[in-house]
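EI: anyone free to look at a 212-residue chain?
SC: sure, send it
EI:
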Amino acid sequence: MMRVSLTDAGKRFNRDWIFRHISQEFHAGTGYALTGPNGSGKSTLLQVIAGALLPSEGKLSYADEKGPLPEEEQFRTITLCAPYLELIEEMTALEFLSFHATFKPWVAGPSQETMLERVGLLAARDKQVRWYSSGMKQRLKLLQAFYSDTPVLLLDEPCTNLDQSGIDIYRSLVSELTRDRLVIVSSNDKVEYEFCGNLIWMPDYKKISANA
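SC: here you go
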């Protein structure tokens, strides 16, 4: 089972500490929510966990049942859905899914058409992503994240630009595709993290850094 560990981790930009002294273990089969007001460091911490940013201090480690994973192997265990991640807009949805599969496999079973139908994009499968609305793009990002066969799922404000039907799809994907996975959600919206049993209040680590 996958385990992600932060040991006395902190991140700063220039002289400003975004967070500091976070020691936390994240275990597979459990949902965690990073919560707090804008600017409290939620997205920054999620990017550190994803390996997109290096911690300024402390340590990040990944381990499975066989032991610690080398840094160069960690990315294979992760998928990330975030508003700031770009899609390849010159591709159609089907082309994009085929391209993604060369990097990370899909979960066993559903075809690409089935996955697109599940998120309400089957009719737009041959349309270039550049012509998608912001909500359609977010549905494609959710598909990419939830249907990738990885043990770690990172979600940053996953319902951004979604209407109510899109939010309902998100809830269904959570119910169907997160069992035995390690899920971490960065959000202020309870709709997005209502399934998480563990809440991490990021301002707590602002107070620590202010006195450190």
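EI: Residues 81 and 155 are 5 Å apart (CA to CA).
SC: 👍
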